[in-house]
Amino acid sequence: MKGLDLSRKYYETYGKKMLEDGFKDCLPFISAGLVGSGSEVLGFDDEVSRDHDFEPGFCIFIPDEKVMDRKTAFQLERAYAKLPEEFEGFKRQKINPVGGARHGVIRLEDFLMEKIGSRDGELDAYTWLRIPTQYLCEVTKGEIFYDGDGKFTAIREKLAMMPKDIRLKRLAGHLLLMSQSGQYNYRRMVEHKELSGAGMCIYEYVKHAVAAIYLLNNEYMPYYKWQLRGLKNLDILSELALPLEFLITESNDISYVNEKYDRIELIATAVIEELMSQGITSAICGDLEKHAYSVNDYVNDGNIRNLNILSGVGE
User: CA-to-CA distance for 231 and 220, rounded, in angstroms?
Assistant: First the structure.
C-alpha cells in the first residue's frame, strides 16, 4: 500500500472520528492531510522506503494560539498519540524522524515559516527567487483530507504555480549554467585531461538541465533524489530522462567523450525547441547562452529583469 493511501485510510478509519467526537468546536479551524516531506507525499514510496519514517499517520494543521490555545493543542496531541499504534500491518514510530515530526499536530504558521519563510503564504519577488523549489513542492503536493475553513487549501492553490516573471528569471539562469558547464566547459576539461573536472561539468549540466525542464513544465522540482524520477512523469521533455541518466551514470573515460557530447547537444536542442514553442526566446541558434539572455529579456518586471541573470539560481 502506498503511504498516501495508508494515511488517508488511517484518517478515515480513526482520525475523522477522533476529531468529530472530541474536537467538534475546533473543526472549523483545522486541516488534516498528508503534506510535507517524504517520498510518500509524492507517491514515490516503495518497499525500500518503509525502512524509515514510514507509518500510518497524518498531519493535523492548527491555527495560531490566538485561535487555538496551548491547552487545546496539547489535548489534541494527546488524542492523536492515543490512536491505534498498528494499522494495515504497519506500526507507528515511537521516535520522530530526523528533521522533526512529519505527522501529528502542527501549527500551520510554523509549518509555512519552516518551508517557505512566510507564515501566511505571501511571498515577495525576492523570496520567490531565493526559495528552493523542493519546499514549494512540499507545501503544495500531497493531499488535504479535510480543511475546515479552507485556509490551507487557499494557500496551497495560491502557491501552486510560480509567477511567470520568477519562472523566466530562474529559467534564464539555469540555461546559462547549462551552456557554461555542458556546451563549453565539458570539452575543455577533457582536452585538459581533467576527467574529474569533466565529470563535474556533466553533473552541473544535468543538474541545471533538470531544473530547466521542471520550469518549462511549470512544475516544482522536488528533493534532489526524486528529481529524475519525477521528470519521467512530466508532460514536457520527459523523454530526456534517458539521455540525462546516460550522462551521469556512464563512465567519464575518454572513450565516452563524443557520445556524451552528443547527448549534451541533443538535450540542448530539445530544450531550445521547447523555448521557441513556448514563445519565450527570440534567439535563433543552438547556443544556450544566447537563449538564456533572450529568456531574461522576456521578464516583464524591470526590477527583476535587471537583476543578475543568476539571481534565481540558488539551489
Answer: 10
